[in-house]
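call fold(seq) -> tokens
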Amino acid sequence: MATVSPALGILGPSGCSDFAQVTFPSPNHGERRGGAVPELVVIHYTAMASCAESRARLCDPVAEVSAHWLIDLDGTTDQLVDESRRAWHAGAGAWGAVTDVNSHSIGIELQNSGNAPFPAAQMAALETLLTAILTRWHIPPQGVIAHSDMAPARKSDPGPRFDWRRMARQGLSVWPEPAKADPAGFISALRAFGYPDAPPDILLHAFRLRFAPWARGPLGPGDAGAACDLARRFPARPLCR
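ret:
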């Protein structure tokens, strides 16, 4: 059994917890490198058929993947890795100046096939969990990101059906104010907000996946305005003009 922190346990659909034990401890974790502490929360979907299947994979030493938390469709919330440890959920990618995302983040897996809506009970459980994590680790709302944000060339989760605006309304993420700007400044604004270096079409897709999943067509002033607003209010790097 892994070492248990006061935060470890299992939350039922009511959001209550006995914090007594790691109900499904994963062996897939290590020390956070360089004395890092969590400053990001990365939201994922499992893309698997059931929570039991997802849990088995996240706890399989052969798979070498894990997450700190797993939330089922009914809101049942299991902790698989102590938050003080480096879970193996993010993979290659970056956000702002952070290039070892695993060492600087907490990973939350949402049980979802990849193309289904997220049920109300699951979203409510996520909100309860996020509120506790952000408070516990003093993480600001802009530190809650999508897996597709930090790895735009290879990841798409939690996908277009995840309600980021709902999260932002509760102070659990951020959302841009409507604005228009010169599309020429779009990429520099995205980089200032935190997105890693990637081809422009991939960055546009990743940005819209989170902030405008209904949008189609070429880059426009609305995309640029939203990106510039986020870069101005929540910069992860200086904005280059």
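Confidence is low (pLDDT under 50) at residues 1-22.
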